[in-house]
Amino acid sequence: MARRTLLVASAGAAGALGPAACSPGPAGTPGDAAAGASGTPRRGGRLRALFAGGGANETLDPHLVNLFADAARAKALYEKLADSGSDLAAVPRLAAGWEPNAGLDTWTVRLREAVFHDGRPVTAADVLHSYRRIADPKRAFRARASLEPVDLAASRAIDARTVEFRLKRPYAEFPNVLAAFGAYIVPEGTEDFQHPVGSGPFSFVSFRPGTSLLVRRFDGYWDGAPHLDELEILAAAEESARANALLAGQAEYAHELTPATARAHERGGRIGIVRLRNSAMQGFVMKTDRPPFDDVRVRQAFFLIADRQELVDGALSGAGEIGNDLFGKGAQYYPAGLPQRAQDLDRARALLREAGAEGLKVTLDTSPVAAGFVEAAGILKDQAAKAGVTVEVKVGSKDTYWKDILDGGVFASYRSGALPVESHISQRLLSGSTTNATHWRRPDFDDLYTQAQSTADPAARAALYERMQRRLYDEGGFLIWGFADWIVGTAQRLRGVSAEAPANTLDWARFDKVWLA
Predict the structure, then answer these.
(1) If phi over 0 gives left and psi between -120 and 50 gives alpha, with beta otherwise, what is residue 5?
(2) d(CA 300, CA 304)
(3) What whole-number distance in Å separates Cα of residue 29 and Cα of residue 426?
(4) Coil, strand, or helix at residue 237?
């Protein structure tokens, strides 16, 4: 026990995916056979799951989730009205279903029969309290931006299990709001989370911030009681500590392992390796309103300078797949039919000549804030040199990086976790988007988004999204070179871990469905 205490006491701030860790591919590898093995679930036992923690300031307030550890704890204790499936489409959870009016500006949400851990039913009043708490402008809750389209003052409870949401404008993708990162439902009036009461699969036992959360099976869970008796979520900041604890039998689940650890143990038989495909978009952002990237030909040249496979191999140690300058590979609305870009240095040089940018020099901001950033910057620098472009790599502060690159500089490393394509567009690519790091501001593009949100027919709406993304593919400011695997390690006796759920989706960290053989 002394060794485990040492490991979990080393918690620190780690585990976020960037500005939308929020605020994501299919099956795992042969090495994950133990985790994904079928069989009859066995009831009982305590699962010990290791995550990179957030230190002594951690809280069980589910509206303050930020890191993966926060999200795992919140998922164990609470529920949302919906969550994102593996294709990032919204899946009903506490909501039994939803229906829009003809104008798509009023949505009626019907709640399923579910209860909180203290036996109280989950009601429309609880939903409205939770959303109004999240939307409070005096607070800094992550999901507040996602709730912006909702007019909560006009929204109301029709009856105990029916909520009518009035929106500020038509919004065809409103179910994404219900599935937003951090949009958990808590009992009406709740402000104290010392002994939290939720409607999730596990009920609270004890919590030591920065160290551990212990919860037990909730037999009244609407989706079926967990197989486990207990779940203990432990914190260990260092990846080596998580891997060593798993190898030593001091934990059964270790989140966020490195590609090197995965390669070392994938076929060794001691532990299982689960690769959560497409969990993290990797790329660079070009400011489209500033020289030299205000010229579309320069942006197009950089699309062609990038050797995507070399970037995946070098910056991600091969643990991922190449990108095509569009977000959300594998997600609903992703235009998979567009031609895959490949490096073309001759065409890149020609575009730079046309733009009068021969001999171009540009500064690339990066930081060790995320794994692979500095390495990818160095690789792109060498690739650009072959096209006659000088890239100066500037390494900035981990503490202020995301704030610094939002409005500063012209070219920067970027990463994002899984979220719907629609959310990526609304949060990052509209003229009024608050996290518009590429400064892509095109009124006609905004109009297409507004038109899509007013379109009830799914096929017609998908066609509009494809038009928008073709525009971004041709002219946008995101150079998306890859999608990283998120790697989880498991004990050989752990069963039922999904190998098809990108990080932060419904079946990720789904501890109510796993069991110990």
Answers:
(1) alpha
(2) 7
(3) 34
(4) coil
Which tokens is 316 given?
A: 């991600």
Which long-range contacts link 54-57 to residues 24+ away (Cβ below 8 Å)?
54/11, 54/12, 54/13, 54/15, 54/210, 54/235, 55/11, 55/12, 55/13, 55/209, 55/210, 56/11, 56/209, 56/210, 57/209, 57/210
- The alpha-carbon radius of gyration of the chain (Å, integer) is 23
Q: Residue 488 is inside which H or E element, if any?
A: strand 478-491
E strands in 334-402: 361-366, 390-395
Say how far residue 409 (Cα) sits from the centre of its chain. 25
- Give dist(CA 486, CA 139) in Å, integer: 31
The runs of H, that is alpha helices, within 411-503 are: 421-428, 443-453, 458-475
Query: Alpha-carbon distance 199 to 190, whole Å?
Result: 13
Nearest to 142 by CA among 193, 184, 80: 184
**pTM summary value:** 0.86
- CA 280-286-291 angle, 5° bins: 175
Burial category of 76 from C-beta neighbours within 10 Å (exposed 0-12, middle 13-18, buried 19 and up): buried
Buried b (16+ CB within 10 A) or exposed e, 133-172: bbbeeeeebbbbbbbebbeeeebebeeebbbbbebeebbb
Please list the pLDDT of the chain residue by residue as tens digits (517 residues): 333 332 333 333 334 444 443 333 333 333 333 444 457 999 999 999 999 987 888 999 999 998 899 999 999 999 999 999 999 999 999 999 999 999 999 999 999 999 999 999 999 999 999 999 999 999 989 899 899 999 999 999 999 999 999 999 999 999 999 999 999 999 999 999 999 999 999 999 999 999 999 999 999 999 999 999 999 999 998 999 999 999 999 999 999 999 999 999 988 889 999 999 888 999 999 999 999 999 999 999 999 999 999 999 999 999 999 999 999 999 999 999 999 999 999 999 999 999 999 999 999 999 998 889 999 999 999 999 999 999 999 999 988 999 999 999 999 999 998 899 999 999 899 998 889 999 999 999 999 999 999 999 999 999 999 999 999 999 999 999 999 999 999 999 999 999 989 988 999 999 999 999 9
Please give the angle made by the CA atoms of 306, 417 and 108, to the nearest 5 degrees: 130
Give me 146's structure tokens: 């996602």
- Which two structure tokens, joined as six digits, stand for 420? 């719907």
